[in-house]
Each structure stands twice: as C-alpha cells, then as structure tokens.
C-alpha cells in the first residue's frame, strides 16, 4: 500500500489517523542512492497490505533531523522501523526503546553495531571494498602512490569499505601513503582531495568510499590537468557514469539500493506477520568499469539507477 504520491514528496499519510505500520527513515533524500532505494520501497509497497511511510532528512548532513524523526515515530502506532542510521552511537538508545515498546527494528545500509535488532539488509561492504581493489589491481600504475578518501567517521558502511581497501592493498603488497576524510558532500571531498594533491603531486591512485567522495575526487583530478591519477570508488550518479565514459574514472563498485528497498519492505511485512527472518540479508554489488559499461547486465543496472542514461 503506497502512502506517498510521488518520489520523495511530502510523504503525508493518506489516512486521517496519521499513522503507518512501517516507517522507513533513510540517512537522507539528496543523493542518487537513497532516491533509488526509495523507488525500491515504493515498488514493494504496491504489493504490501500495510501502510508504509518514507520520511527522510533532506541530506546526510542533517543528522539532527534524522534523530528527531526516529524519536517522533517512537510514540506512534508504527509496528516496524526500517532505519539507515547516520549516527549509530546516538541512535542506539532509541532503537532499544523501540524494541522495549514491542516494535520491530530492521536496519538497512549501515549496521548499528552490538545493539540487538530484528535484522539487517545491505551490501557486504567489507568484501565489496576488497573486490574493488583486487579487480582493479592489474590496472594500477606501476609505482602506486595511494590516496584513500574516506566519507565521514562513524558511518559503518563506508568504514567497512575502507577496511576492505586497506586489507586488500596489504594483500597486494601496496602501501597506502595518504588517508583523508572527504566529508559529506562532493564539494567537501573536492576541496579535501585538492589540498592533498597540492601537498603531494606524486599521488597517482585515488580510491574513494561513496558517491560524494568519488565525485569530489573525479572533479579534483580533472581540475589538476598535470595530475593523471587513476580514480575509483563506490556508487553511481550521472556525473560518475559520464566520468566512466570519458575515462576519468577507472571503476566503481555499485550497490543495488533498489533491491535493498524491495527486500526491506518484504522483510518488514514478514516481521509483522510474526515470521522469523535471517539476521543478515546481503544485497548484490557490481563492479562497473569502462570495459564492461556496455554489456547487457551492466546497462540494465545503470538504467535502473540512472534512468536518464537510457
């Protein structure tokens, strides 16, 4: 049962009670990843018998807004909270209160940690991070000077990817010379990467942790025409797709947020029915490079996540 009229609209409930059975609270609404996950939720909601409400802060920087949303819906009749936690440490006490109130909690995208929940749906970020480095290693510069661009401290999903990067670089016998925090926007990532390129013009390999940090890295390298650094990262957007086509980006590990949204709703429905669900449900990740960009399977994935590319 759909309860919003358009993608990322005001998300007001259609019934007079102002209540929902399932509340989905993402980290934000501003980037492609969450917009695609929203479409997956919307598709699954059409087959659900329950009222489903999507309420997200405007962007991933709005952590206070997310905290307030989680707090506000504790007092409603919502039976399942589907949450992508931006600040796991701060949100854990609220999650405990949800479960003490008899509500079920399903975590998506970023794991919450040791706090007991009813299930997790998301990518295996650690293994995906290792795979990105391993698959691209044959194409690395002969003497790599490596810069790893983290997203922001505290985000378990991106930190797991970075741990995967480090472990696979070590397995490949490659040292990581520089590690920086890109921040929460492509602008902050651009500025952070630019500063690092100014400090060490020998950097020739940049691996970033998410959509915004990868976009910032691509833009920074593009604006430093003397620097021919190889760039790779995570997630997809119109800018990153064009960068793959232009050869400015050597590879991205793409998650499947549409599948994540679909599975989250299906599992939330199962929890309401009283079914036992698996504690962890991993969704697919796919490496996209200029070499496989036009294959049928990759074209289908791109069409789902960047519809304007079709």
What do you see in this structure?
With 310 residues, the chain is of the alpha/beta class. The protein folds into 2 domains: 22-123 and 256-283, 3-Layer(aba) Sandwich (Rossmann fold); 125-255 and 289-305, 3-Layer(aba) Sandwich (Rossmann fold). 42% of the residues lie in helices and 17% in strands. It has helices at 32-45, 63-73, 88-100, 125-136, 156-171, 186-199, 211-223, 238-246, 257-273, 296-305, and strands at 22-25, 52-54, 80-83, 104-108, 119-123, 146-150, 176-181, 205-208, 230-234, 251-255, 280-283, 285-288. Strand 8, helix 7 (211-223) and strand 9 (230-234) form a beta-alpha-beta unit. Helix 1 packs across helix 9 (257-273), helix 4 packs parallel to helix 5 (156-171) and helix 6 (186-199) crosses helix 7 (211-223). The radius of gyration is 20 Å and the shape is elongated. 47% of the residues are buried. Mean pLDDT is 91; it is low at 2-16.
